[in-house]
């Protein structure tokens, strides 16, 4: 009996082994083979070693120019990582001849390497650094260095290479880390509209494991995807490629993307399946060109975005040239104040509709409509009503930010001298008494009160940390500090660099970070992220409008935007809201 059981176990283990590791027989379709009557183009092979973004790197470049390219009309471009693959030159020419895809130039390059002086056969390989790092860096390399270099080239017949600058005319692809690179470049620059990802390395090689999570938190971007993987894809100490690609597929479905996915049983990492399906990939990615541009296919399932965003509403540009160091302040009547070092203006609906409110910086507007002013030259606080200073606080401090309490008074963030590295939180009472409530060893640059004033939130600039204090209603002491927030940070930064925070009446907190405007729920989790146009960075936020349902955003490039939301911003003079949120 024991021998029989052992035999059965050996049989099933052997069968499982054959099932898992058997090789598929891949047969190319006619679209991947040379066809009679189709005129094929030419390749340009050249080296590129003039990168400033990746200094000292050398890489092989292969440019395929189809015969239909006329050298006059800017061409669509498809960028390949790790050189040209998928029999792409043949496939593309066949599909162009059949008028199934537009005329396009293929640009393929190897990953960069830096040659060592002592042992030239042992270079510094840049592949995983360039490809697996989820930052805008490689996208900037393509857009600002490689593609402009390609445009300096000519075909053998003297045709100039002219590439379209329209994002709708750009595709990018790769396999493994090259696929992660394709996603990263498209996602972080918004300059590529179509992505083919084969066996993408959305794993722990560097930071691309976060891609599936972020896909579900951002508004859906106008990118069309085709993903491919196999049931026998890689599984290493960096992660499981099969499940990572499944997670990306689930995330794209959750977020409403226009995408397709091919999972092949028994297919291994970057095997020939990616080549076999390439004609199908190109037909899908370029369907309906040019009129049917990539766009979301359905609404995201992200609950916080669905609750706060209004269909058809996007960011509205109001003004340019606003000083980056300015701060936006919420007025009691829904008016927006723009506060700089030596003046405060009320911003109207047009760039010329501005009114000087004070010749000092405004830190906040209180529940009774009073202005909390700060004179940076004198390091002095004062209270102003109806354009007149009512009281001056004698203690000299360096003030950074302030938040008004609904029952009067303010919390003020700053430090005791301009060279101090720590942060201090003071309370300014309704009878103008200034008292220190907390000393922070962290470099806090923003604070906000929850809509119900239960909690004071502070945000550390150089890290991703955000803290919550319980507000003592009677004495206004700050109690039970806890590291409470989880804030996402871009790979190229060490911290979220939060510079502004505002709350709404439903328990959410909105943060100006280097990843965009992050919407955190009442439990401190970043649940939704809003990207500004051109990925510009927000630096200051404020609520405005009669219903306090417009979010105003000042950006690092001096542009002022606003966006109407389906919420009500917390305003100092408005009634105390009842916030009822579960533990999550």
Short description:
The protein has 584 residues and is α+β, with helices and mostly antiparallel strands. The chain is elongated, with a radius of gyration of 29 Å.
Task: Describe the secondary-structure layout.
Layout: H1 2-21, E1 42-48, E2 59-65, E3 76-81, H2 88-97, E4 104-109, E5 113-114, E6 124-125, H3 127-132, H4 137-150, E7 170-175, H5 177-189, E8 194-198, H6 211-215, E9 224-232, E10 235-236, E11 239-240, H7 241-255, E12 259-268, H8 273-276, H9 278-285, H10 303-308, E13 316-319, E14 327-330, E15 336-339, E16 344-347, E17 354-358, E18 361-365, E19 371-375, E20 380-385, E21 388-393, E22 398-404, E23 410-415, E24 423-428, E25 434-440, E26 444-449, E27 455-460, E28 465-471, E29 478-486, E30 500-503, E31 509-513, E32 516-520, E33 526-530, E34 538-544, E35 550-555, E36 560-564
Parallel strand pairs: 3-4, 3-7, 7-8, 8-9, 9-12
Antiparallel strand pairs: 1-2, 2-4, 5-6, 10-11, 13-36, 14-15, 15-16, 16-17, 18-19, 19-20, 20-21, 22-23, 23-24, 24-25, 26-27, 27-28, 28-29, 30-31, 31-32, 32-33, 34-35, 35-36
Helix pairs in contact: 2-9, 4-5
Class inferred from helices and paired strands: alpha+beta
> Which stretches are poorly predicted, pLDDT < 50 over at least 5 residues?
1-22
Q: Superfamily at the CATH H level of the largest domain?
A: TolB, C-terminal domain
Report the strand count. 36
Helix tally?
10
CATH topology of the largest domain: Neuraminidase
CATH architecture of the largest domain: 6 Propeller
| Helical proportion, percent range | 10-25%
Instruction: Give the overall form.
Output: elongated
**Oligomeric state as shown:** single chain
Which sheet architecture does the biggest sheet show? Answer: 8 strands, mixed
Strand order, largest beta sheet:
1-2-4-3-7-8-9-12
Percent strand: 25-35%
Mean pLDDT: 93
Query: What Rg do the Cα atoms give?
Result: 29 Å
The CATH class name of the largest domain reads Mainly Beta
Termini separation comes to 53 Å
